[in-house]
């Protein structure tokens, strides 16, 4: 090496979405389920991954810019889809904001930073890779970690509700 020059290494990392993510998200959209991606990762990275799995998003919202006012947060949750650099407290507040707007919220997560939001959500779903605290608070744990099991979960829930309604109908 010539004097004064030092070797430089350039490392690149690429997030790899789950192979079944695109088809699963298409299923939920066709079923009328509104999707939100809430992540602790950089919003640009999260938005790029969202685009790779078929979501039409121009950008991700940096959660540090979100309003603290609950009503303004509700409005942001209604209009935006991808959120990055979200703290665990913000995740919980975002779930609550959607619920105040009348949404039934199901959330998946695997980190300890998801535990508060999973507890707040109407249905908290932990992946098999979840930390023990997150598995403990989740109402459902995907033991094989397959995201594409979620359409079956939705179908089973709808079947159960339909059966309950059918049984209760004569009592009205």
Structural notes for this entry:
By secondary structure, the chain is of the alpha/beta class. The chain has a single domain, classed as HAD superfamily/HAD-like (Rossmann fold, 3-Layer(aba) Sandwich). The chain contains 7 helices and 6 strands, in the order H-E-H-E-H-E-H-E-H-E-H-E-H. The chain has helices at 21-30, 43-52, 70-79, 88-100, 115-120, 132-137, 150-168, and strands spanning 37-38, 61-62, 82-84, 106-109, 123-127, 140-142. The strands form 2 sheets. Strands 1-3-2 form a 3-stranded parallel sheet, covered by helices on one side. Strand 4, helix 5 (115-120) and strand 5 (123-127) form a beta-alpha-beta unit. Helix 3 (70-79) packs across helix 4. The radius of gyration is 19 Å and the shape is globular.
Task: Set down the secondary structure blueprint.
Elements: H1 21-30, E1 37-38, H2 43-52, E2 61-62, H3 70-79, E3 82-84, H4 88-100, E4 106-109, H5 115-120, E5 123-127, H6 132-137, E6 140-142, H7 150-168
Parallel strand pairs: 1-3, 2-3, 4-5, 5-6
Helix pairs in contact: 3-4
Give the gist of this structure:
With 172 residues, the protein is of the alpha/beta class.
Helix content range? 40-55%
Secondary-structure element series: HEHEHEHEHEHEH
Count of helix runs: 7
Quaternary class: single chain
- Supply the CATH superfamily name: HAD superfamily/HAD-like
Distance from first to last alpha carbon = 87 Å
Query: Which parts are unreliable, with pLDDT below 50 for 5 consecutive residues or more?
Result: none
The value of Rg in angstroms is 19 Å
Number of strand segments:
6
- At CATH level 2, the architecture is 3-Layer(aba) Sandwich
**Structural class determined from secondary elements:** alpha/beta
Can you tell me the overall shape? globular
Strands of the biggest beta sheet: in what spatial order? Answer: 1-3-2
CATH class: Alpha Beta
Strand content: 5-15%
User: What profile does the largest beta sheet have?
Assistant: 3 strands, parallel
pLDDT averaged residue by residue: 91
Count up the domains.
1
**CATH topology annotation:** Rossmann fold
